[in-house]
Amino acid sequence: MVVGKLRQALYRRFLLRGRFARARSTAAGARWRSDRSLLAVAHAYEAQGDRLAQPSESLDRGVFVSNGVQHDFGSIEAMRWGVVTRGAPDRSRWEHDFAFFAYSLPVVRSEGWRGARTIARMLQVLENCATQDQSELRMFHWSPIALSSRILNLATSLAIASEVDGDQDDEAAAVISRHIWLCDQILQRTVERYLGYNHAAFGEVALFVAALLFSDQSRAKRQLSRALHVLDAGTLADGMWSERSTTYHVHMLLLCRALRASGVAEGSHAAVLDDLSARMEEALLCIVHPDGEIATFNDAAIDDAVKPSAVGWTPVDGEQTRLLAEAGYARLAGGNWSVLMDAGPMGPNAVIGHGHADFLSVEVCLSGRRLVVDPGVASISAGPARAWTRSAGSHNGPTFVGLEPAEFFGTWRVGRRGRATFSDFLNGGGAKVLASGDCDGYEPWNATVKRTVSIEGGHMAIEDCWEGGVALEPRSSFIIAAEWEVEILDSGLLRLTCSDELEALVELEHGRIVSVNPGQYFPSGPMSPKMGTICSIEPDGDGVARTRWTWSPSDLVSLS
């Protein structure tokens, strides 16, 4: 990996300018067509742009909106990539969306070639900026992941525009296809195979789609084989994407579905794709809440990928308790409670940058409404917010004050890292469900932590145990979602009330409440913080803290 990263850096610094110039000079000869295969890919992939739908009139004025954040450049000609995030690292996702061009999909779906003309003008500005100042080629919007995303989004946009409008706009089509050619030529030399996992998968699938667009069938088949190899290698036996981010799981499943839709896969390739898609769809049932959105463990954010329903997730009838043993995720359900629990490794040792120290953390829903939530992602840029995002102290698991079960540095790097594992799992067929897990991340301090979550008779219980570490401060915190009001009834009892009058009680059967304070969390990423309530508890002298969560009307009446 180190050699691959070094080769990539040297290429982008010293050779990319020449590749860019040569690719631009030959792009005029690129010939594209939208056939049945490409259109089928477009239909499978189109949902990628849903959250970025905006009229071309706004883009024509130089206005772009992502995640509720609007930036007005004044005109298309004044648009610049890579400038909005300078001094504002929390807007990195905005910059990603702007560079990836997924918004072209809803634009051409609603406006056909009229919208494509707007996209073409933007691409001309993007290329001209790089021609005038080739240092731009080392910036994020010319990185392999950005090139991959533009190929996927723009090629499928051409297919959709052709479907929507019978009369092709030759000029707009030429500009867009030439830009795809340019991205394709550069990506062939820079695809991040040395990284593997999601970066390699996006790159290989993008090169496959480019081959379809330019009618290179033999190359398309080679690229299909390469893409399948990466996707298959990155998927665990239980169907979870091995980076353990629910967002990337959905991304990778979308790529699988797009490949399958193309119809290019035959024989063993088709069988691999069918198997991958089926296992990954099955895994969704363990990582998607009743509200139809993903859990936000590790580097995951709601709406950062397509909706789970766009990749095969459907609500299931009845209560579903499931375990992804290799991934380390469990779902417990019963009595209107639904709990997702993380008791796995941070991620694959080779690429662990998307992992958080959320060992033994939980997310909890009551009657389909999120109650206990993960802190989400406050930043994807190095700094205090990124450190907080990945820390154990910001999560819902048992920990020790001031200690970390892993050593984090920079944006993606991890040194020493612990891991969690499930030690017990009981699916009692509705009578009682239970999951227990341990974390070894505190062994340097001769300490361990354990959590058991159970649902029985309409109640949920969470028991945390700390062992060893005599001079350490054990602590557990629960982030209560913004929709819930938290009221302290006495020293060991909390009432949680949702806006629609749904109520729950949290009784501390063992241990004591340390604090109840407002606190931010980031379910949709850095640009959309929410203000919840953080309830912190500590154990009694025996190292045990146990909370009992109830919601039945009879329990509430007894307190009135």
From TrEMBL:
Cell compartment(s), UniProt: Periplasm
Molecular function GO terms recorded: lyase activity
Any one Pfam family match given in the protein's UniProt record, by short name: Hepar_II_III_C
GO cellular component annotations of the record: periplasmic space
Keyword Lyase found: yes
Domain Heparinase II/III-like C-terminal: 321-549
Chief location bin: periplasm
Keyword terms, alphabetized: Lyase, Periplasm, Signal
InterPro entries, sorted: Chondroitin_lyas, Hepar_II_III_C
UniProt-recorded name of the protein: Heparinase II/III-like C-terminal domain-containing protein
Native organism: Agromyces bracchium
